[in-house]
From TrEMBL:
Residues 29-166 form the DUF7134 domain. One of its GO terms (cellular component) is membrane. It comes from Streptomyces griseorubiginosus. Residues 178-205 form a coiled coil. The lineage of its organism: Bacteria, Bacillati, Actinomycetota, Actinomycetes, Kitasatosporales. Pfam families: DUF7134 (PF23539), HATPase_c (PF02518), HisKA_3 (PF07730). GO terms for molecular function: ATP binding; phosphorelay sensor kinase activity; protein dimerization activity. It comes from the Bacteria. This is histidine kinase. The chain crosses the membrane at residues 34-55, 61-79, 86-103.
Length: 411
């Protein structure tokens, strides 16, 4: 995050404004830098002129040359933030000229203190060090050979310069720390937004897969019954009536399941705390198999091998949808007369196998339904295989973790 952006960040602005000092700093930083530094240059020039305007005994009186040299140390401060090192060199050069021509700088080197602070904040490492060493050495030489200063004056001037430089270092470290904190907060916010976007995309993909499975299954059953209805409507009215009843039942079941899925998108239900019906699970498989058999005339055998046990909800939904999608493809594409659904329970795995005696799916890739089936299995840490069966027909095999290996598979 850039320094300009961090200065205008609303959270940072409110935090700094909570304290009067922070309010002043915030206003100064948001003001035009040339206006602020011009005012600083005028203030430095005024302070430097005081000892000549109101001299004590033995002090030099104000002269034009002395004032111009004093102005030469103050005016470059206007560009101290734009060109910090050039400003420091200009101020240092004019200050050296004042010392050499015995137009001594003020009792307090105001321009020098501002320059040292600015270099400590903005200068490169070698610029900061060289400038601090030059000013300390120049002050010592000036007091030694030009001013014949007393010992306490050495301590006063050198300590003042070191303190100004130290304040600049602290300001630089504080700005770096603030920038790092703000950058980290912005990065966490971006990661949080990305995680939310991923969660939304996954939820939308899940809803899309559920809607596809429900609609494909229900529509396939209704199409089969609708095609059979006109054929038997005159010769076998009872069978035709049963076919139309099956169409209506399939439509109602599809509508109920769609309402249940789309309920997650309704803000009103979330606010009111309305409960949604549970997603289908393995216990609903016998009902699904019976529905397909009665509605389509396809003979479906259902078998369970091993000891069944509860699974996580997403795994049970994946197993149910796998059987639903496989039977839907059998009804739509396989032209089969018989199918078999088998649940094989093992210690750490549930294998769901659906086979038929038909000619296989019309599309080689199995369409979007089988792709969604693979995605469901992968989301639960499992896998899915589709292809011709060992004795002809088409086979769908889904392997889902059913024990301690589930976490490892997902990890």
């Amino acid at each position: 995050m850039s320094a300009a952006r961090s200065r205008h960040d609303p959270l940072v602005t409110r935090a700094r404004s909570a304290h009067p000092y922070g309010l002043v700093v915030n206003r100064l930083r948001s003001a035009n830098p040339y206006v602020v530094d011009s005012a600083l240059a005028v203030l430095v020039l005024f302070a430097a002129s005081l000892q000549w305007m109101f001299p004590d005994e033995g002090d030099d009186r104000l002269t034009l040359v002395g004032w111009l040299l004093g102005a030469g140390t103050a005016v470059p401060l206007i560009w101290r933030r734009r060109f910090p090192y050039a400003t420091a060199l200009a101020v240092s050069t004019v200050t050296t000229a004042m010392a050499y021509y015995h137009a001594p700088p003020p009792d307090v080197p105001y321009s020098g203190l501002v320059v040292l602070y600015t270099m400590a904040v903005q200068g490169l490492p070698w610029q900061r060090r060289s400038m601090l060493a030059s000013w300390l050495l120049g002050a010592v030489l000036t007091m030694q050979f030009k001013e014949h200063a007393q010992p306490f004056e050495y301590a006063f001037h050198l300590t003042g310069m070191i303190c100004a430089y130290g304040l600049g270092v602290l300001a630089r470290l504080q700005r770096a720390y603030t920038a790092a904190v703000e950058d980290r907060a912005a990065r966490l916010e971006r990661e949080r937004a990305a995680e939310t976007a991923r969660a939304i995309a996954q939820e939308r993909a899940r809803i899309a897969r559920d809607m596809h499975d429900i609609l494909a299954h229900a529509v396939s059953l209704m199409v089969v019954q609708a095609e059979a209805g006109p054929v038997v409507v005159r010769s076998d009215p009872a069978r035709a009536e049963a076919a139309f009843d099956a169409i209506a039942a399939s439509g109602r079941d599809a509508m109920n399941q769609l309402r249940r899925i789309l309920g997650v998108l309704k803000e009103e239900e979330r606010r009111s705390g309305a409960t949604r019906l549970p997603q289908p699970d393995l216990a609903a498989l016998p009902s699904l198999v019976r529905q397909v058999s009665e509605s389509t005339g396809l003979r479906v055998d259902f078998r369970i091998c091993g000891r069944s046990r509860p699974l996580p909800p997403d795994t049970e939904v994946a197993a149910y949808r796998a059987v639903q999608e496989a039977l839907t493809n059998t009804v739509k594409h396989a032209y089969a007369s018989r199918a078999q659904v088998e649940l094989d329970w093992k210690e750490n795995e549930l294998t769901v196998t659906v086979t038929d005696d038909g000619t296989g799916p019309a599309r080689p890739d199995g369409g979007h339904g089988l792709i969604g089936l693979r995605e469901r299995a992968a989301a639960c840490g499992g896998s899915a295989e589709t292809g011709p069966g060992p004795e002809g027909g088409f086979r769908v095999v889904v392997r889902l973790p059913a024990g301690a290996d589930r976490e490892a598979a997902l990890g």
